[in-house]
Protein: tRNA (guanine(9)-N(1))-methyltransferase
Amino acid sequence: MTEVEANGDGEAGVPPPKSETQDSTENNGNSSEPAVSKSALKKQARQQRWEAKKAEKKAAAKEQKKKETERKRKEWEESLASIPEDERTKFIESRISLRKERMEQKTLEKNSKKERLNKAKEQGQNVVVDLQFSHLMTPSEIRSLVQQIMYCYAVNGRCESPAHLWLTGCEGEMDDQLKKIPGFDKWIIEKENKPYIEALQDRKDDLVYLTADSETVLEELDLKKIYIIGGLVDRNRWKGITMEKAQEQGIQTAKLPISNFLKMSSSQVLTVNQVVEILLKFIETRDWKTSFFAVIPQRKRSQADSEGNTDNAVVEEEDEEEREQNDDPLTSKKQCVEEIPSNKLVDGL
Structure:
């Protein structure tokens, strides 16, 4: 049956005109794309402002670097010019020797880091970051999570007793973004495209998903256990998702004993890198209170807790936009992610 026959009127091959009501219904009620909320529009605008500021910051940093290089070159030339010719050679040799010593020290530190991380593969605490939630996140949220992972690896590498980190479920956009990290292919870390339930299927009884929704409080870390952290930014959109996943898979769950030691000024939502750093601090100190106060930012603690523990208080972090700017991965290429913090909210523990 042709379209004309189906509608009963109109010219051949031309559908009848739509009323305003029909057009409005199709555009709003039957549209496959939901209307964008005001909060989403504000978030988009904030993201655009951040992108613009990031571009400006990158250009300014490039220009500043150029000026600094030129300044150092002039200082070097002036230094050489002020030294008698018979002493100039010795001066140059001393500078070369100093640079060589610095390079040797960096090499020693690098080798020591590799040794510690390789030892952790055999004897360290296993910690998994579950990356199977990337399909629930926006591109900017994925980038934020990638930076949190960068910081996790950097902090872990600096520890005297590092954990053995795992990244599981590395697929799609998440995998693409991770591979853009300078030196990622050389990281001493387990990278699995498979989900942890498959990659660690022979150790299912040892899996423990860390989630704030659990009724079990984590009192002590067990080297035989494998602790899983949900890699999900803006978890408020997906409340209870990690707990539900663990229950469906039939694996153990636990939550950090935060409420036993401090009061949170808001929800007990921490970033992936904060959770990893807390675990690393506990491995070092075996003290939850010390670990929490060393890692959880002051802005997330209640006033009473902050005032009562000024010795352990960490400096309050910058506001959201400035923190996002500081998350720029372009600033970390030389350090290969060793000094970049990230503060997007993820799994609540």
